[in-house]
Design goal:
This protein has 699 residues and is an alpha+beta fold. Helix content is 25%, strand content 25%. It contains 17 helices and 28 strands. The strands form six sheets. Strands 3-5-1-14-11-12-13 form a seven-stranded mixed beta sheet, sandwiched between helices. It has a six-stranded mixed beta sheet with strand order 9-17-16-15-10-28. Strands 18, 19, 20, 25, 26 and 27 form a six-stranded mixed beta sheet that branches. The longest helix is centred in the C-terminal third of the chain and has 22 residues. The radius of gyration is 26 Å and the shape is globular.
């Protein structure tokens, strides 16, 4: 009799799909307890200063308005673990959009009217919001996001560059970018008589929400229940608790009733984080045969005066290509801007745009095929650390991608392929993303009817986490996946890490695998029947994840893009795009392909449409809604193909998987930009490549 196929690797449809399309799935703002009130946060309208007075009389006189919270009457917080949560605690205004009041009413409309009726006076101060490479105040931090050292050096990179026969010295600029998940940030909160706080929060990790709210309100973690059962996207913006969760809990305590807050989209840019702008200078030195001798990658960025967050744009360069000498460094300046935070592939997305654009420029200077240049400099060990790679599939991705895309038939000469007024070009770029795994816990329960129930506080932000976790559990329990029930999305479940850093499946899956294999072992060793309540086995991975791996663990990929640039208008259209990835074992091809394509689509937006400027006069983000901040729509997205290399890596986790949620965006913008250069002959080094920036080079 043939053995049934393993649930792992099967293209199962997501478990919650029907609930979402029928409306049964409930998001944070769709929970409405009896007596629920609605909060409307009020953002500051100055870029820096202090609140002199909040005149509440007119607002409180409006029908249905129950309360107005300000720094004068809001519940006092303990020191939050994140300074952006210290809202309504004093009169300071560190940036435009910082919340200075909250109006609470019995309907959303009345809360909005109350917010409009507030009269707030300020004491203003001079502000500064613009980043440039030569501005005063730039300093070198100790570490950057992810805990990486801000500076890494091997050899004398400056001298090696100066003596290299072929040199590239270029600066690449990317402005602020915004996550804009479909579901805005929202929280519904209420307190019980015994002081227990419950919140339904749109978050990428309800364990973190629980712990942050407990710290802010001086509670024990067990006094808080945070639920994030269904989340409509996050892309990093929901990776940490945001001010609306604290405001909702504050208002619920103040009024004694449940309070719901759903942020208006126009407020989100200032309070939920953003991808910080970067100015990146890259210098590549090479021999005449294309061998890199020096890599210098220097990245400047901004942070806020509220806290330090440094986009780690130069860090991926430490992994990508071999060279005798290298220097990767970061500088940051604290400005009067909202606090930057995570956005899909922080560091890697902007950093690899710069590096892969510079590699394309080097290939042009050498007269060498861009794929061949990358293959020539593919290292055996990780360049900076010297550790061997657990697996490195970059070369395989480049070679298979070139074959699938028809790259070898490409004429490398720029600006010669025309179809009427359209200029046609193709480009390539590499991708990388580190393997992150965080400690998590899980429990597995066997019922007397032969079914299983797995509990883990994972969060499904639209990635299909429920489905993949069920597949991991079923494989470990040696049972059909339909026989496994999954409970996720509540801090009352075993603690687990957030959905971020492409770490979710590896982190939760390892804990689930450990719990399920432990349960299966006990079941097989058991001689008698199960007790009526069944049998439960709990496990966590604190010991395993605390061990420093001896290998450098990364996913890799290659993007290929074809574009058409209209020589009359400067409009660029991506005609086709191919991504090939090496990301360990792919556990569910259906959900994995969606993740890869989603990331690539965001890369198209990063390259061609997404832009947001900081207004120097008013200090705010200009493009603060989806009418002005242009994410790709259906007409912008061509035929996108995603494939992967079958990669066996025994040095990762029991599933052999790497993260796939972010590598799809890494390098995608560079592939599009390189294709535009091939089509037009013009090398533009500032994103996005909009018609107004391209047209002067086409006339």
């Amino acid at each position: 009799m043939s053995q049934a196929p393993s649930p792992l690797g099967s293209p199962l449809v997501r478990r919650e799909g029907r609930d979402k399309v029928t409306g049964r799935a409930r998001y944070a703002a769709e929970h409405t307890p009896p007596g629920c009130l609605y909060g409307r946060p009020v953002p500051a309208t100055v870029a820096r200063g202090r609140v002199r007075a909040v005149h509440t009389e007119e607002a409180l006189a409006l029908p249905g308005v129950h309360a107005v919270l300000t720094h004068d009457n809001a519940p006092a917080l303990k020191e939050p673990d994140d300074p952006v949560l210290a809202v309504l605690q004093d009169d300071r205004v560190p940036h435009r959009g910082w919340y200075v009041a909250l109006v609470v009413a019995d309907t959303p409309e009345r809360a909005r009217a109350g917010a409009a009726a507030l009269r707030i006076t300020y004491e203003t101060a001079a502000h500064d919001v613009l980043l440039s490479a030569d501005r005063p105040g730039l300093y070198t931090p100790v570490t950057v996001n992810g805990g990486y050292p801000a500076v890494r050096e091997r050899g004398d990179a400056e001298r090696a560059f100066d003596t290299a026969p072929v040199q590239i010295d270029a600066t690449y600029t990317i402005g602020p970018l915004h996550n804009h998940p479909m579901e805005p940030h929202a929280t519904t909160a209420w307190w019980t008589d015994d002081g227990h706080l419950t919140v339904h929060d749109s978050s990428q990790g309800s364990t973190t929400v629980r712990d942050s709210l407990a710290a802010a309100f001086g509670l024990r973690p067990e006094q808080v229940t945070a639920v994030s059962e269904h989340v409509g996207g996050g892309f990093g913006a929901k990776g940490t608790p945001r001010p609306q969760s604290v405001l909702a809990a504050m208002a619920a305590r103040h009024t004694g009733r449940p309070v719901k807050i759903a942020l208006p989209r126009r407020q989100m840019a200032a309070v939920v984080g953003h991808r910080a702008p970067t100015v990146q200078r890259i210098r590549l030195g090479a021999e005449d045969d294309g061998t890199l001798t020096s890599i210098v990658h220097e990245a400047d960025t901004h942070t806020s005066t509220v806290k330090e967050f440094v986009e780690q744009a130069a860090v991926p360069t430490r992994t990508m290509y071999g060279s005798a000498c290298s220097r990767t460094a970061h500088r940051v300046v604290a400005l009067d801007v909202p606090s930057p935070s995570w956005m899909r592939a922080p560091g890697e997305a902007p950093g690899m745009y710069a590096l892969e654009s510079a590699m394309d420029e080097l290939a042009s200077a050498l007269g060498m095929d861009p794929v061949e240049l990358r293959l020539r400099n593919d290292p055996v060990d990780e360049p900076d650390s010297g550790r061997p790679f657990s697996s490195r599939g970059l070369a395989a991705c480049l070679e298979e991608g070139a074959e699938r895309f028809g790259w070898r038939d490409r004429d490398p000469r720029p600006a010669i392929h025309e179809e009427g007024p359209l200029l046609i070009g193709t480009g390539v770029a590499s991708a990388t993303y580190p393997v992150y795994i965080a400690a998590s816990g899980a429990s597995a329960h066997a019922a007397t009817d032969g079914s299983f129930r797995v509990r883990v506080n994972a969060t499904d932000i639209g990635t299909g986490a429920r489905t993949v976790v069920a597949q991991i559990a079923a494989a470990a329990l040696d049972t059909p996946v339909t026989n496994v029930r999954i409970d996720i999305g509540s801090s009352d479940l075993p603690d687990a890490s957030m959905a971020g850093g492409s770490s979710g499946t590896a982190s939760w899956g390892w804990a689930v695998h450990k719990a399920c294999t432990g349960l299966l072992r006990e079941l097989r060793e058991r001689t008698g029947p199960l007790p009526p309540e069944g049998l439960t086995f709990a496990a966590d991975t604190r010991r395993e994840t605390a061990e420093e791996p001896p290998y450098a663990r990364h996913a890799f990929g290659a993007h290929f893009a074809e574009v058409a640039v209209d020589s009359r208008t400067g409009e660029t259209r991506v005609r086709r795009m191919l991504g090939v990835f090496a990301a360990g074992r792919i556990l569910n091809p259906l959900t994995a392909r969606s993740q890869f394509i989603g990331g690539m689509t965001m890369g198209i937006g990063m390259a061609l449409t997404e832009a947001c400027a900081l207004d120097p006069a008013f200090g705010d983000f200009v493009e603060n809604d989806l009418a002005s901040y242009h994410v790709p729509v259906g007409a912008d997205v061509p035929r996108i193909e995603a494939h992967w290399i079958d990669e066996h890596d025994p040095h990762l986790n029991p599933m052999g998987s790497k993260g796939i949620g972010e590598i799809g965006i890494v390098g995608a913008a560079a592939a599009v930009g390189n294709a535009v250069r091939h089509a037009t002959g013009a090398r533009l080094r500032t994103l996005p490549l909009t018609p107004d920036t391209l047209l002067p080079y086409l006339l």
